[in-house]
Amino acid sequence: MSESMADVTDVIEMAGAELRYLKGELGRVGESAWDRFLDWLVDDYFRVEVTGLENIPAEGPAVVVANHSGAWGLDAFVLQKVFARGLPRALYVPAAPLVFRFPVIGSYARRKGAIPLDPTLGWEHLVAGELVGVFPEGISGLEKPFRKRYQLRPFSPGFAVTALRAGAPVVPLSVIGAEEACPRLGEIPALARLLDLPCFPLTPLFPLPSKWLVTVGEPIPAPPRPGSYAARAAAARLLCAESQAAVQALVDRERRRRDTPFW
């Protein structure tokens, strides 16, 4: 290689290194801005009120099961912020691949405990004695029309299978406020196809200032793991149904605590 070509190669490598550094710095600035924005949402805009954190086990594995609501899924970020402030334990939340596709938000979510969604639903974290948070309604929870707000969609039983296998209790949790903050008024299929999204909701461009209540219920102990596959499947279905009933009961009770959604 000639000296001039070597010089050009060095310049390209230096430029590449500078661009990677700049990208990393911009990412860190963006994550910091998003974190401060979440602080403002939690404290001043949504005025999030949290009760029942003492029901989270101080040690050992547990599966926190919450309702999923609001057109944009802000509830996951609010819960992460609430848990990070109120507990000395990390919360790991299986997240759909879509979350990690967004610049800044995806890297922020990963750094704060979001893990790739797979059939094990955080099994490796449970066997390590950690907390895992799940939204068993999945994306269907975000697709509820506003007229059906706070009516839980059927829970997928995968979390119950994992909890049963790990011997982890299930902790029900309700989030009130997300449905009014980001009401789903319809959808725009053309934009969903253009952006390669499962759906693109018709909702206010900026969340509305609803009052949020986050309530943690009493843990549901995991039953002893049965020996046969049929018995384990039946036990998982029962645990799933019991968990959904507990979350729905919390949701119904906490909705009655608000005089209006915006006080």
Structural overview:
By secondary structure, the chain is α/β, with parallel strands linked by helices. The chain is built from nine helices and nine strands. It has helices spanning 3-45, 74-86, 97-101, 105-111, 123-127, 158-166, 178-181, 189-195, 229-255; strands at residues 49-51, 62-66, 91-95, 114-116, 131-134, 170-176, 186-187, 201-202, 213-216. The chain has a seven-stranded mixed β-sheet, sandwiched between helices.
Task: Briefly summarize what is shown.
With 263 residues, this protein is an alpha/beta fold. It contains nine helices and nine strands.
Helical residue percent band: 40-55%
Main sheet makeup: 7 strands, mixed
Structural category is: alpha/beta
End-to-end distance, in Å?
72 Å
Strand neighbour order, sheet with most strands: 1-9-6-2-5-3-4
The total strand number stands at: 9
Descriptors:
46% helix; 9 helices; two-stranded antiparallel ribbon; alpha/beta; 7-stranded mixed beta sheet; 263 residues; 9 strands; single chain
Topology at a glance:
Layout lengths: L2 H43 L3 E3 L10 E5 L7 H13 L4 E5 L1 H5 L3 H7 L2 E3 L6 H5 L3 E4 L23 H9 L3 E7 L1 H4 L4 E2 L1 H7 L5 E2 L10 E4 L12 H27 L8
Parallel strand pairs: 1-9, 2-5, 2-6, 3-4, 3-5
Antiparallel strand pairs: 6-9, 7-8
